[in-house]
Amino acid sequence: MPSTTARKKEQSTSSDRPLALLQWYDRHRRRLPWRAAPGEASDPYRVWLSEIMLQQTTVKAVGPYFEKFVARWPDVTALGRASLDDVLRMWAGLGYYSRARNLHACAVAVTREHGGVFPDTEEGLRALPGIGPYTAAAIAAIAFDRRTMPVDGNIERVVSRLFAVEEELPQAKLLIQQLAATLLADTRAGDSAQALMDLGASICTPKKPACSLCPLNEDCTARAQGTQETFPRKAPKKNGTLRRGAAFVVTRGDELLVRSRPEKGLLGGMTEVPGSDWLAGQDDATAKQQAPQLKGLSRWQRKVGVVTHVFTHFPLELVVYTAKVEVRTRAPDGMRWVPIATLAGEALPNVMRKVIAHGLGL
Q1: What does the alpha-carbon distance between residue 63 and residue 28 come to, in Å, rounded to a whole number?
Q2: Does the annotation mark 122 as catalytic?
Q3: Up-side HSE of residue 108: CA atoms within 13 Å toward CB?
Q4: What are the pLDDT digits (tens) for 179-212?
Q5: Which of 10, 40, 51, 67 is catalytic?
């Protein structure tokens, strides 16, 4: 058993960590467009919007989108009154489009069911569309100073190194959550969480962490072992099976043929050029048979090369075919012509931006 002196030292060290984190945060906090200035109350709308946008995306990528959204819709009521199509158009390029649909649904729910005011508890927040345990904890802590610790990827990394958590993710999540909670200060819960987030983003980075600058370095177990970069432990990643398909880029003068994807499922509600199913092992001939039928169109030109894209669960390869039709050619049912000059205003996912660029030679 540890000696009495050792136990007292550990207890002292543990109680010092939250204060050391806050002192470091007060000196080194990041300036982020959604973060309240020191001494100012956080805006729940901005906190919620940023947390949804930041899921599986970087701070650098989110910044411009966040600024566009709050300029267009300055509060949750304004966003709740917007159309889903407008929200998807503004979101285009940020990826993981189910987040945009959930974002809109949540704004509608807060507007209609809560009078435009976010619930201030984790339980109340979790009842809203698109808000899971992490996001509820983050909003509760940062916006309402509830004493709870959200655990994102940055916090996961800091905690797993500090305590040298040997269990692999995702099984280790519960233990890491419990250990992270020990780093909460008695007050300023939101700042405690943001301090750990900033520490992971700027000091305790995945590669070559700057341990000498870390306020917790003296009792970091992984640093003492020299094993920082091996944490968190992760199970081998499984790659999805490659899927293949075809995309058809059809122009009518300065217009492009497009359609909207079904509301449910992958890239739901987004704009795309016509295409085949995306299937494992699909051959080019089968994919080409799913080309749109247009009057006067009998020949397709296959572009050299393929467009590749990686989704969360599978990689994709698309062969691109192009064709031109007469000016008065009607669009097939469920499709429409849009000016190429206005494509930036369409809700095009990144994979379709790639396809169109490849097809039009942009």
Answers
A1: 19
A2: no
A3: 12
A4: 999 999 999 999 999 999 999 999 999 999 999 9
A5: 51
